[in-house]
Amino acid sequence: MAVSTMTEMGEPQVGRPGDPCVMVIFGAGGDLTRRKLIPALYNLAASNLLSREFAVVGLAREQMSTDQFREKFNKDIKEFATGALSSDLTEWFTRRLYYMSGEFSDPKAYQQLAQLLQQVDKDHGTQGNYFYYMATSPIFFAPIVQQLGTAGLMTESKDVWRRVIVEKPFGRDLETAKTLNRQLMEVVKESQIYRIDHYLGKETVQNILAFRFANGIFEPIWNRRYIDHVQITVAETVGVENRGGYYEEAGTLRDMVPNHIFQLITLTAMEPPISFQADAVRDEQAKILHAIQPLSSEDVLTRAVRGQYGEGHDPAKRMVAYRSESSVNPDSSTETFVAMRLQIDNWRWADVPFYLRTGKRLPQRHTEVAIQFRRAPFILFRDTPVERLTPNLMVLHIQPEEGISLSFGAKVPGPIMRLGAVNMNFAYSDYFGTTSATGYERLLHDCMIGDATLFQRADMVEAGWSVVTPILDVWKALRPRNFPNYPAGTWGPREADELLERDGRHWRGNGAGPARSMSAAAHES
Ligand code: BG6
To answer: Rounded CA gap, 238 and 106, in Å?
Structure first.
């Protein structure tokens, strides 16, 4: 894995620029291209991580000339690039943008694309290296790759590479994911496929690996002997916004769990890889996915909870019910909240529950992995008021705060022995300033240098769906009778709390909310 690190002197060590290449974006008219991809490329150029021999070809149905495309992105870069803007660089960058309109199903479009790419190679020295980004509806993923194959645009040679980046959703369930993998592999090798998950572009998600494996002191306690359970929360305040049509088909389980949340689980739970080579890391992640105990139909009823938001109760913030959102069926049984209890059946994690919850229209935007350690034997303190003392807790804060906190017990000053919980905090921004990236820089750069560590392999995607598909099946067969079952702006349905209460536990920060500032959690016991 190519890593940008700080030296002990605090000087940044940056990686090498990407190879000379052309990025072809299918579906270049969409929001992803405008808000993330083009600004991320610009940021890479600003950090000297983009080759000087680089170009972008946007392809979409919409009629537009290359000049109009350049003009559009000239404006968008100014709006969305997060790094410092320079007019010379913007000018250099926009001169490398090309556009062609075409139907994804039309073979002629691919012949035209091949000619354009040859011309771009000549003009910009891009050496025939191409990567194709599928920023389209998933129904086009396989047909586009098949057409690229037929047009000879996926053929590699000794000095030339061709890759394809596939966005989520990667299938709708195990069967469709397998079909898509098979269809892609009829045309390309696994090593040419980069299945992207934008969670892995987040610094704090990558930091889980650094935190666990660059420090000697945590690994010895990172197991069932010392850890009571793990809680993963991915909470969003937004509703489905203008994506009602997509969401009706997907639902929260498909949208968030087999991808983003499973990334957090695998990085938290995996064994140390033998190296940071792509397959060494991904082998260990895959083992965790295979070790997640599949839920039987009965388990789904007791260990998985679904919810759908109703209208909000706060008169100051008008929040409509999911069923009243645009493009949503007024009788919809699509879930907007999921909570579940998973077990990882291996030596390290046997009997340590992993609780996860995610949902739309929750009270705070907050993503974290909380590791709750086992309680100490408080025999020494039995004659003191300690009954409310919480066990040690380590929280990996992913967003919007980025950092790590550890809470432990300390003596409250005074003449009697009283204990309180205090926090030790690390905030990214204190050490490294605020990061100004879209989250796609690292992933695009990795693809340009052929590092697939942070991309999903076919077997990982399928293993993820194997866990989720039995739940989808039960939920499909049993229509929820109590939807909507949580008001917008609350922490999900009551059953989500009961899921933990049955085990004598509770969600961290419910009510007060987990997103309190990290230091404010001190003195709460
Ligand atoms: C996307 C989902 O993959 O991730 C969205 O489709 C969700 O529904 C988003 O809102 C969350 O990403 P982030 O980076 O805002 O946590």
So the answer is: 38
